[in-house]
Design brief:
The protein is of the alpha/beta class and 332 residues long. The chain has two domains: 5-115 and 316-330, Enolase-like, domain 1 (2-Layer Sandwich), CATH 3.30.390; 119-307, Enolase-like C-terminal domain (TIM Barrel). The protein has helices at residues 57-66, 76-86, 91-109, 113-116, 135-144, 160-170, 186-198, 213-222, 239-242, 253-256, 259-271, 285-292, 320-330; strands at residues 5-20, 25-37, 42-49, 127-130, 150-154, 175-178, 204-205, 227-229, 248-252, 275-279, 300-301. The two termini are 32 Å apart.
């Protein structure tokens, strides 16, 4: 294989409902679709540009000025490592390239991404995320997604008890808690951990600020349920920094820089006896489907980004030409 061609298309993913966390609220996510083509095959990659992360469309345009694609898809991991050295702090953009290369390898070899990594098991079912909501909004979201197996509730310190009570009023399904750094009071977080344990909740995610590792260590030592890192864990290099402060990590393709790095992180979490979530950042089906291919080695699955948006062009049967036409009409 040679002469891989690259095209990219900015897009805007729109949420079904405003998505509120402890520190921000947004109605959509800027996105980039990347298409790689050879004479016989084509494949897609994707990255998103989250407003509280530094990468933007301008980041990718700068990378693309000097980007040299590989001759083939035989050594994706080696190529991605070279990109990470060449373009540090650009993991989201690199993830789009990595996903497209993995999908292109699937097209050329007939091997799924799971088969490329010799994975055979089925992943656990994904949670469905509910952003911080009013009582009526939560009722509506639960009604619309009653088929989901379990839920992830976004919370903050002030509203966590209301959110849990409202959820229990309308659903008997299991749930987990993600505070997104929304707690400052350690005693409140500890009280919550005991309440969650009584309710059968399996973990609490990122209660304190990402840099406040000592508060997480304090809580981990006292909590009856696991405390998992999200914002405190970004890439493989963070394992040694956070291992003693948390019981597990939320590993995401965007943060890690692609499928190859996410797989590496999941395997390292196993080696360190840390719980693992394979998570997402409101991507569409391109990144979600790729992530799901390696989700069988994660303890928990949180790959629901495509379910939270209204304009996923890749969930149906559109041809590449039809998708490109829609992307160009969007004029993002």
């Amino acid at each position: 294989m040679s002469n891989i061609l690259l095209e990219y298309f900015p897009y805007r993913l729109n949420f079904k409902y405003p998505f509120r966390l402890s520190h921000t609220e947004r109605t959509g996510t800027d996105n980039l679709y990347l298409k790689l083509s050879t004479e016989k095959h084509s494949a897609w990659g994707e990255c998103v540009f989250i407003p509280y992360y530094p990468e933007t469309l301008a980041t990718f345009k700068e990378i693309n000025k000097t980007l040299k694609l590989p001759e083939n898809t035989e050594n994706i991991n080696e190529y991605i490592q070279q990109l990470k050295q060449q373009f540090p702090n650009s993991n989201f953009c690199i993830a789009a390239i990595d996903i497209a290369l993995h999908n292109l390898k699937s097209k050329t070899t007939g091997q799924s991404i799971a088969e490329q990594y010799q994975l055979k098991g089925q992943p656990n079912k994904s949670s469905f995320t509910i952003g911080i909501s009013s009582d009526s909004e939560m009722e509506q979201k639960l009604f619309e997604n009653a088929e989901m197996s379990y839920f992830k509730l976004k919370v903050n310190q002030e509203e966590v008890n209301r959110i849990i009570s409202t959820f229990q009023l309308f659903s008997k399904k299991p749930f987990t808690i993600d505070a997104n750094q929304g707690f400052t009071d350690k005693s409140d977080a500890l009280k919550l951990s005991y309440k969650l344990a009584d309710l059968g909740v399996q973990y609490m995610e990122q209660p304190f600020h990402k840099d406040d590792l000592e508060s997480h260590l304090w809580l981990k030592a006292r909590s009856p349920i696991p405390i998992l890192a999200d914002e405190s864990f970004q890439t493989y290099a963070d394992f040694e920094k956070i291992v003693k402060h948390f019981d597990g990590v939320n590993i995401k393709v965007m943060k890690s820089g692609g499928i190859s790095e996410t797989y590496k992180c999941l395997k390292r979490a196993q080696e360190m006896e840390l719980k693992s979530i394979i998570g997402c950042m409101s991507e569409s089906s391109v990144a979600i489907d790729a992530s799901m291919q390696i989700a069988s080695i994660a303890d928990f699955v949180d790959l629901d980004g495509n379910l939270l948006i209204t304009n996923d062009l890749f969930k149906g049967d559109l041809s590449d030409e039809e998708i490109i036409d829609e992307l160009r009409k969007a004029k993002c």
